[in-house]
Amino acid sequence: MNELSSTDVFLEHRELLFSIGYNILGSVADTEDVLQETWLAWSGRSGIENPRAYLVRVAVNAALARRTTINRRKEEYVGPWLPEPLITPVDPVEQAETLSLAVLVVLETLTPLERAVFVLHEVFGYSHPEIAELVGRTPAAVRQLAHRAREHVQARRPRFEADPRVREEVTQRFVDAIVGGDLAALLQVLAPDVTLWADGGGKARAAGLRPVHGRDRIARLIVGDAERRPVELLGVRYRRINGDPSALLLSGDTVFAVIVLDVIGDEITGIYAVTNPDKLTRLEVY
């Protein structure tokens, strides 16, 4: 296989490899590194009968190895750690397979191998024997890993999430209340047991070192923070982040926060706010 055809084959599978890597890692930068490692392993090979299987196996194992580095970084991280947000198309036909930010947060509590098995089986439809080949385990071991991971995720995610149109409306109401400093409107849209995860990484304004719980506390915290920021510097763009209707807050042309909401019925049960600038540099606002 010549170099050009090797490149073409890799590019043909790049979106799949990126989606698998990102869902395992939750980091665009680390996923790009995994793709580079996969390309280096692929570009020197020839006579591969099943390029897709080979590329996926290399990418999955490179991602599993990189999880160790990410877990070490998380141990030293300041405050709550959230995945790096990813802008996705509105049209689901154009979307790569990308898990929501909230589900990625739950996946952070799995072991690296459980997470890889969950992603490959639940998101990409790989069978247990196929996954066993990819990760070097027996099918029986993979089935156990898949069962544990699925039960873990189902126990921590709401079963009845709001329709996307309702999420869009609630997100706009939430942002309008923030911009207007309207405490009453904010209290109206928040569920009593709402939780706020604010990821500033010690580099940007956030809500403290731990998640914040409770409607009254969160509402007053958000309104107080908004009052300290000049309104004329605040811009808003509504985009899909990891497939969910979300809001990007801008100061001038720079994104300083991404807000993703968990919505059940018409109430907000979870707020994910990413303000760490290192996790926002790759967001292109158009």
Describe this structure in words.
- There is one protein chain.
- The chain is an alpha+beta fold and about 290 residues long.
- It is about 50% helix and about 15% strand.
- It has 10 helices and 7 strands.
- Strands 1-4-5-6-7-2-3 form a 7-stranded mixed β-sheet.
- A hairpin with a 2-residue loop joins strand 6 (about 255-265) and strand 7.
- The chain is globular and about 65 Å long.
- The protein starts with a helix and ends in a 12-residue tail after the last strand.
- The mean pLDDT is about 90.
Entry keywords:
single chain; 286 residues; alpha+beta; 7-stranded mixed sheet; 10 helices; 7 strands; 51% helix; 17% strand; globular
Helices, by number, come to: 10
Measured distance between first and last alpha carbons: 39 Å
Strand order of the largest sheet: 1-4-5-6-7-2-3
Oligomer: single chain
Give the fraction of residues assigned to helices.
40-55%
Structural class, from secondary structure content?
alpha+beta
List the uncertain runs: none
Gross morphology is: globular
| N-to-C SSE string, H for helix and E for strand | HHHEHHHHHHEEHEEEE
User: Total number of β-strand segments?
Assistant: 7
Rg over CA atoms, rounded to whole Å, is: 20 Å
Main beta-sheet annotation: 7 strands, mixed
Strand content: 15-25%
Mean pLDDT: 90
Write the layout of secondary structure elements.
Elements: H1 3-25, H2 28-43, H3 51-75, E1 87-88, H4 101-107, H5 112-123, H6 128-135, H7 139-156, H8 164-180, H9 183-189, E2 190-199, E3 212-213, H10 215-227, E4 234-241, E5 244-251, E6 254-264, E7 267-274
Can I get a quick summary?
51% of the residues lie in helices and 17% in strands. With 286 residues, it is an alpha+beta fold.
